[in-house]
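Reopening closed ticket. The problem is back. First fold of the pair:
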Amino acid sequence: MSFVKYLLPALAATQLAFADSKCGDTKIENQSDAEGLASCSTVKGDISVSSDFSGSLSLSGVEKIDGDLTINNATQLTSFSADSVSEITGTFKLASLTTLSNLAFPKLDSVGSLDLKVLPALESLSFDTGVTTAGDVYIYDTKLGSLDGISLETVGAFDIENNRYLKTVNVNNLKNATGDITFASNYDALEIELPNLGDGKNLTCRNISSISVPSLKKLSGSLGFYGTDFKSFIAPNLTSTGDLVFMNNKKLSNISMSRLEKVNGGFQIARNDKLQEIDLPKLERVTGAIDFSGKFNTVEFGSLKEVSGGFNLQSTDGDFNCDTFKKMKNDIIHGKYSCEAKTDNPTTSNGKSGSSSSSSSSSGSSSTSSGAAVVNSGSVSAAGIATVFYAIAQLF
């Protein structure tokens, strides 16, 4: 009896050790390897899939992956499903899967990071429960038409680029982003809805047709719009941001930021030829330079008390005049002052063309299609905008 007493716990420990050994780091070469994980409710390690995998891959039984899930360059993988996985603590990375057309994780709720890149056949995300928690999200070069299934409440970086079929982004629950939010080179008429986003770091948009941020109050970093097709930008609750840029937005005719009080960096508006009026009634401080150029006839700063950097304001409009701003150049504006009205060739502070239709000889060095002027070619990352504006400020 004493032998049995010790044998049973030993057998149980052996079985547990065996189970643990097959529920750790795993490389899946074929469907049989995936089926070998069916008894593992939790995989304590990384799962990777061979680049030689072909056809459909199904991962059943696993509820949690305590590590990364990675598939890279499996160009013959057509479908990937995991019916029970609700959490991936590491990075869920799918890259260069050129024939993957079906991605079904119906219970997935939480990932450490979501990294989906070069999935040209993937048209939708079957994340039925909705991913509410993710450290960072990167989605590049897919055929997605929407981001349904991404139901984030908080996120680090949220970077959505080169998705040519992406027509809508609606992340209703997102309230805070600790990293950069970037939309660039997606469908030309992309519509973005971030109705509950209150705080964030950098928000950068290129090639979009509309954006709604009614709850946005504060950005610790920059806010920039380059080469967009929207007619109006309204941020009724925004009180402060870092560098603020509106560059080469050919249809933009209205900017409404009625509560904006502080720009903690530079403030640039250029090459927005439909924009006639600029009214910032509550703006008190700009810690960098103000650099406006274009065809506007009215610029109103009802509460401006301090501009730490330079001041460059140039317009082609015959009704525009600089009298109001001359009074500011000693007490309010601490950098170099320049204001030109009724000029045929308005320029930015570094001499680039400030109007898309300007005949300025300097316009050749600025890319019209990319929204470039101070931020040349519109390709400088949001993180680098502060450096650019710092350099501009030093010129004054």
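Second fold of the pair, where the issue appears:
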Amino acid sequence: MGTPAALPLDGLLHVFSFLEAPDLLRAAQVDKVWNEAAEYAFLWRRLSLSRWTFCNISQASKGAQTWKQYYLHRSQLEHQMARGRPSQDFTCKAISGHEGKIDGMAYLSAIEHRFDGQEKSVVCTVSADCTVRAWNVQEGTQIWSSSVQPAPLRSLLTVPEHQLVITRDEQGTIKVWDGQTGKEQATFITHSTWCNLVLCGVPENPFLTVAITEGVLYTLTVPCLKEVSRVTAFQNCHIDLLLCSPDKNWLLVGSTETPDVLAEVFHRDSLTRPSEDKPLSNSLPVGECRNASWAPREAARLIVLHEDRTTRNLSVTTFDIASKRSKNKVEILAQQVASFILPESSRMPHILESHGSDIILLGCGSGMTIFSITGNLLASFQDHHQTITSIWVDSFRVVTSSQDISLRVYTWKREKNTVVLKSCYHLLGGSHRWSSGFTDVACDNVSIVAVETRKCGKSILKAYFFNL
């Protein structure tokens, strides 16, 4: 019987394809032949894709050892982010510059894993001081600031693929900015005191949909902000729910302030390719809509928090949205997948987020509860002492911000074919003497950034970036 070293290369690779990373690393130490076999890119590519599903393949496939480096670096980063030891695993910086309250924040850098020594997180903010600014998270420095605008800026979107920033002010003016220089590129005026913005369409050809107080939806080209369509969704109704599905084909439009108005689902094409016919839409068969979220791992799965029209109980209903073609028409179908009534122990949720295809996260006061879409209580956390102000959810972690001036970091773990959420550690902000708490939080794959509001009326950024 021959020794394992006598196996041909194809045989070694076949055996190695069943190994996990620690065993593959040990096998590489046996001899030169095993070392060369254990370096093959497809082995590490398989491990990476089986663990994370989505990887930055364009960056990772350029060399035979790139997939191995990707796997080891990302594993190390996840270990640090789950452990969260100050100074050892991450560095904290306070970033200041705005003269007013920060009302919006978003990453301009792509939220992806890169381990080529060029990792840089860029965050953009808008403020009541009438400026939009870009910040280098790792250096804690301002990259650029716009000139002072005529009115306070209230929200923003970023388009990392095109390095664009889109803002709206409290007078209804929409502007597009060059994300690298801060130069103004286009303006669209709605004359509305309130607007909501969302991006739809494919990344190569995005569109901006703007909902205004009067119940009107504008769809604009990006970056030129040329009007493509104008649709009245509701008559004189404040639209405060405007969400685009993961496949960018569906828009949820609703009002939480008007009980008798049913939430509507619009197909993207009817807004971006207008015709003389009425835009393709359909009302959701639920009562008063309180909040909603699209499930990130499904093309068009919509989770809705609403009040049951018959029992007046607070319920969560999940729909799969699709279109159906018949002879001469197309209709939108909202097929109910699951529904359940929230238990009385769950106070009125003020935040609704989702994970994967079937996990719901609810922020209720200072606590967070996790349900399946069928209503099974999966977990309940009471890690904060004051109200949770925002919940960030991605495929690896959950981060909550709170008025108690702390962030709580959780990580998703797979146990016995089930995904569970583990509470890990706190990231602390400033002093109660100066601070009113965190109001928002966002993450990329190497940093966490939160907005901390000061009692003087100004806001700063607290950046926590992990040591690679």
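Update: turned out to be a display glitch only; the data is intact. Residues 66-83 form the longest helix (18 residues). Helices lie at 9-16, 21-27, 32-38, 41-52, 57-60, 66-83, 268-272. Please close again.
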